[in-house]
Amino acid sequence: MTAAGAAVAVLLALLPLAVHNAYFINGMILVFIYGTAAEAWNLLGGYAGQLSFGHAVFFGLGAYTSTMLLARAGISPWLGIWAAAGLAAAVSLVVGLPTFRLRRHYFALATLALAELVRVLFLNWNLVGAAVGLYLPVRLMNQSWAMIWNTKTPYYYIALVLFGAACGAGAWVGRVRLGLYLRAIDEDEDAAAALGIPALRYKLLMMGASAALTALAGSVFAQYVLYIDPSTVLDPLRSVLFAIMALFGGRGTVAGPAIGAGFLILLSQYLGGALGGFGRGYDYVVYGLLIMWIAAYERRGLLGLVRRLRPRPTAAPGPEVRPATHGADTRGPRPAPALLLEVAGLAKRFGGLRALDGVDLEVRRGEIVGILGPNGAGKSTLFDCITGYLPASGGRIVLHRAGGPRLLAGRPPHWIAQQGLARTFQLIRVFPGLTVLEHLLIGQEHRGESIAAALRPSPPAVRDRAEGLLRFVGLEAHRNAPAAALSYGQQKLLAFAMALVRHPPLMLLDEPVAGVNLTVVERLKDYILAQNDAGTTFLVIEHNMDALMALADRLYFMANGRVVVEGPPEAIQQSDEALNLYYGR
After folding, report:
1. DSSP character at residue 251
2. What is the DSSP string of 499-515?
């Protein structure tokens, strides 16, 4: 905890001793309860970028579960709230498995529909009191085991402790490697998968944790108000409110949801009291205006606005020239030609269009194999099929590794990446909001990585590897700069370094030198050759024929979705068929 956080915690703990205004204390209790729900929402919607409008379901489940256990089974809420948290987490995982197939606004709409479905179900379900709702047994007033008092102070401290725990959970996630993975998933889930990050696993983890915390908030809310019904605890507007609190303050931060909860709850309480009946429905107007402001102006809320106004670290306009230490004519003997990647009869159809038409290709250990061809030849489609981003319509893709061959067709991208296959994309896929060093930390090995390991910081060996690669590509001076501050050429170098962190045996590079100046072209060629000498095999798509001829041991020339010519660079240069297809003669 920072010194500022500790000071705020002490101040809040001492507040009831100095302030005896019941109206204000009531507002603070609601701030803590809703702030807990907003911090819980932030774990899923802030860090992982999954914008849920269904968290009222978990809030309501928490309220109903602990209430029914106390009223009908005599089970203390001190135990009941944990049963409620477990139930909400289990329900969230059942809900998350199908809905996480959806992205962005489709996921948000699905969760909103779920919230309304559950509300209607509870309105008509006699077991939970239907529309009448449930009362907590007030005969147990001032019995601590029942968590019912006729004063506000005990509720204040319970809600404060819960809010502190929620803030602590958010701070913890932000400090361990899981937080980096979630931020990468938020910014570009496909690029995260290319690094081997199992997005579904971590989204489900955050869904369960978020639901459990929200249920705890709902349970404490029920104990405080002593009456619940579907219109109170399952109102879809509560889901919107939790999201607005986090979005308004700043999602993906600890302070953001706390700021949003304090502002909106106290505004609602005091402005509603001042306006009386005239102000009914004004909160909907405020929420709508906030959504419009966030969507149109600053997606990171108030804290994002503050950060935007601060001076941002900048990167140098371009990398310095370094003398080449490798060249195509000084690479030495090639390693033993053991087969590493085998593609046989690969086909990909989009309706009646055959993007790939029976492609056969082999890559042997230690080689640099190039793929050349005109636009529309199917080169990037081939890479997408090999790495799992597109399902093949036919054929076989085999990665030969120690322990036996791996069949890649039909496997998800993160699984393929974990087998030792790294790739870069034709259009640069970096994470604009992450620093240069953070890019390399998220590129660490994910095969066999447990959830417990993800809940710890990156090990020193990974940090050392990351620092070494930054020095290797000349970006060490920009380690703390966001990727958005780098030049195009520097982003190319960053994407290359990020893919190298795991020591991949095979790297697929999609136009690595396209669009950069000659200085960066020479540097990238030098780095590829150096890594190849260190044992990395490369399969490279490139339109820059001079660069590819200088790098490749063998070339495949593709046109119209099939391999036309295969052989050493000299043979391709002398092939009339390849030249005619490439230059459109």
Report:
1. T
2. HHTT--SEEEEESTTTT
Per the DSSP assignment, residues forming a β-bridge with 350 are 353
CATH 3.40.50.300 domain position(s) in the chain: 339-583
Q: Give the helix ranges, DSSP H, for 250-360.
A: 255-275, 282-296, 301-309
Tell me the pLDDT tens digit for each residue of 540-567.
999 888 899 999 999 999 999 999 999 9
Whole-angstrom distance, CA of residue 428 vs CA of residue 430: 6
In 3D space, the residue among 341, 355, 377 whose CA is nearest the CA of residue 565 turns out to be 377
CATH code of the domain occupying 339-583: 3.40.50.300
- Determine which of 152-161, 301-310, 490-499 has the lowest per-residue pLDDT on average: 301-310
Task: Write the CA distances from 484 to 170, 435, 436, 479, 481, integer angstroms.
Answer: 25, 9, 9, 13, 8
User: For residues 224 and 138, is the Cβ–Cβ distance under 8 A?
Assistant: no
Q: Which amino acid is at 547?
A: A
Phi-psi region of 58 (alpha: psi -120 to 50; beta: other; left: phi over 0): alpha
- Asked if 395 and 346 touch (Cβ cutoff 8 Å), the reply is yes
- What pLDDT does residue 425 have? 94
Taking the CA of residue 61 as centre, how many other CA atoms within 13 Å lie in the half-sphere pointing to its CB?
24
The total of other beta-carbon atoms located within 10 Å of residue 94's CB is 9
Element (H, E) at 540: strand 537-541
Secondary structure string (H, E, C) spanning 349-393: EECCEEEEEEEEEEEECCCEEEEECCCCCCHHHHHHHHCCCCCCC
305 pLDDT above the threshold of 80: no
DSSP string, 129-161: TGGG-EE--GGGTTBGGGTB-SSSHHHHHHHHH
Containing 404, the helix (H) or strand (E) segment is strand 404-407
Phi first, then psi: what are they for 340, rounded to 5°?
-115, -50
pLDDT-above-70 percentage for the chain: 90
**Given its phi and psi angles, is residue 239 left (phi above 0), alpha (psi -120 to 50 degrees) or beta?**
alpha
> Using CA atoms, how far apart are residues 102 and 474, in angstroms rounded to an integer?
39
Alpha-carbon gap, residue 126 to 117, rounded angstroms: 16
| Residue 261 tokens, joined | 């909860």
State pLDDT tens for residues 239-257: 989 999 998 888 889 999 9
**Distance from C-alpha of 309 to C-alpha of 294, rounded to nearest angstrom:** 16
Burial class (CB in 10 A: 0-12, 13-18, 19+), 8: middle
Pairing of strands 562-567, 554-559: antiparallel
Question: Could you give the 3-state DSSP secondary structure of residue 555?
Answer: strand
- Cβ atoms within 10 Å of 371's Cβ, excluding its own: 26
Decide: 436 and 216 in contact? Cβ < 8 Å.
Answer: no
The model carries a pTM of 0.88
Cα four-point dihedral sign 462, 467, 473, 476: positive
Sheet with 394-401, strands from edge to edge, namely 353-364, 339-350, 394-401, 404-407
